[in-house]
Design goal:
- Helix 3 packs parallel to helix 4 and helix 9 packs parallel to helix 14.
- Helix content is 34%, strand content 16%.
- It has a domain of 75 residues.
- The chain is an alpha/beta fold and 454 residues long.
- The longest helix is centred in the middle third of the chain and has 21 residues.
- It has 14 helices and 15 strands.
- Strand 8, helix 8 and strand 9 form a beta-alpha-beta unit.
- The chain has an eleven-stranded mixed beta sheet with strand order 10-9-8-7-6-5-4-11-12-13-14.
- The structure holds iron/sulfur cluster (2 copies).
- One iron/sulfur cluster binds next to loops.
Length: 454
């Protein structure tokens, strides 16, 4: 809850073990207060200064002033939609075919009528972002091959796109989200030609094989481990993405321990299954949210002990932003048939949000943009959602993933999801860890303003 009834600095009170965490996200201040201190903070924010402060209260007031808790917040310029849609990052959905049948696949990977992106489309997308990068005088552009299917199954187009990216005047950063089940030839090409990769892998054989079987029903564990071994041998930069279904929540610490011991990955991201596609029966609903939080917190301890960076997308107190992600403004997300999407989650024309999120088409080397539709999505930033205005995560989560919380008919076009509980509980946990590392009072860097691009 936001503390103080007057407009002024954003200060929140977060209940914690019978006390209150006082949190000023924009100033990067967090500390635990007892009831008297919490009341004093509220009174001061409301402009009620104790007439005859006790010596203890005087010390507390002095402390709060020194920490500048009551001073105006440093500005966080809300990310404005650029006047023009000039993305410098292309995300290409190369195919909806897949060699796995993950039980939670949000895109029904491998089971819809097969659709592949033609190379002409992939090359046009690269031309657009490369041109934009030159126009905007930025050092380079990005090309990413994304899910909705396994990108390496549309191999000829993938390799043609990579070669085309390498022929551009500016440097292109080429990456991919992938399941890691390749032939030796494809693996060798990836090692030689990609700049990075996000590998979806759920860890120990019993988990990986149960959650991510091959299309034939056989196991995928050994193939992915072979890929990882080659990545590690070549010091190839990659991160691991673990998906947690209901049956894996209590296994998260073991999964992270396995990854720490058997892979050279430095970064692991864990995301709960969301209610989409094949994921519906195993999705993390409101009833499972706290079990996810418990599992993740225990996994954090394991990760810390092994020097692994463990993250979850909705809890990121180190990031100040008004947008959950930059896909709406900075990414040219192109589906197999040329539609331009504003969200990685909206992967085909039959998706329930397609008529809101598919905002144009890539054709003849140009983006034909439905500007009104695009602005409607681009303008739904965290600072404009009333539901989030009292939430201490609002400058970090910023209304969460558009594809998971967008509600065309709702107030502010927003509907909370079970992730809110996860985002809030995990952000609180991360703040507690920060405070513990800083002897009870965390004073972060006020200069750090990451995530928002000018
Ligand atoms: S989650 Fe990815 S790897 Fe698994 S079936 Fe879906 S598209 Fe294929
Ligand atoms: S989406 Fe939920 S967790 Fe995120 S800022 Fe809004 S209320 Fe908070």
């Amino acid at each position: 809850m936001r503390i103080g009834s007057k407009p002024g600095p954003e200060v929140f009170g977060i209940p914690f073990r019978g006390k209150m965490i006082i949190y000023a996200p924009l100033k990067r201040i967090a500390f635990v207060a007892n009831r008297a201190m919490a009341t004093l903070v509220r009174d001061l924010l409301d402009g009620r200064v104790p007439a005859l402060p006790s010596p203890t209260a005087s010390v507390a007031v002095e402390l709060l002033r020194k920490a500048e808790l009551l001073a105006p917040d440093p500005p966080l310029t809300p990310v404005q939609s650029p006047a023009e849609f000039t993305p410098t990052s292309a995300t290409l959905f190369l195919t909806n075919r897949c060699n796995l049948r993950c039980v939670y696949c949000y895109a029904y990977g491998g089971t819809l009528s097969p659709v592949d992106m033609p190379s002409s489309l992939a090359l046009q997308a690269i031309d657009v972002v490369s041109r934009n990068a030159v126009k905007r005088c930025v050092p380079g552009f990005e090309v990413g091959f994304h899910g909705g299917g396994e990108p390496t199954l549309n191999w000829d187009v993938l390799t043609a796109a990579v070669s085309h990216a390498r022929r551009q005047p500016l440097r292109g950063f080429v990456s991919m989200s992938s399941n890691g089940c390749y032939s030796a030839g494809k693996l060798s090409y990836i090692l030689d030609n990609f700049d990075g990769l996000s590998l979806s892998f759920d860890g120990p054989p019993e988990v990986q094989n149960a959650q991510r079987p091959r299309a034939t029903g056989t196991s995928s564990f050994r193939a992915v481990m072979k890929t990882i071994a080659e990545f590690d041998k070549r010091s190839f930069p990659y991160g691991l993405r673990v998906t947690a279904g209901r049956s894996t929540l209590d296994k998260l610490p073991d999964i992270v321990r396995f990854l720490a011991r058997h892979t050279g990955a430095k970064r692991v991201q864990i995301e709960p299954v969301f209610r989409r596609g094949r994921g519906r029966p195993v999705a993390i609903t409101a009833g499972h949210a706290r079990a996810f939080v418990r599992g993740f917190c225990a996994a954090l301890d394991v990760a810390a002990a092994h020097g692994l960076d463990l993250s979850y997308s909705g809890a990121r107190p180190d990031l100040l932003t008004t947008r959950f992600c930059l896909s709406t403004c900075e990414a040219l997300v192109v589906l197999q048939t040329g539609e331009v999407s504003t969200c990685f989650e909206v992967h085909n024309v039959r998706h329930p949000l397609a008529r809101h999120f598919l905002v144009g088409r890539l054709q003849d080397g140009q983006i034909e943009l439905d500007r009104r539709r695009w602005l409607r999505i681009a303008n739904r930033t965290g600072d404009r959602i009333r539901f989030c205005s009292d939430c201490f995560c609002k400058f970090h989560c910023a209304g969460d993933c558009l594809g998971k919380t967008y509600c065309a008919g709702g107030v502010d076009r927003f509907r909370p999801s079970p992730r809110c509980v996860i985002n809030q509980e995990l952000t609180k946990h991360l703040l507690v860890r920060k405070m513990a590392q800083h002897h009870g009072m965390w004073l972060g860097q006020t200069s750090a303003r990451i995530g928002d691009k000018p």
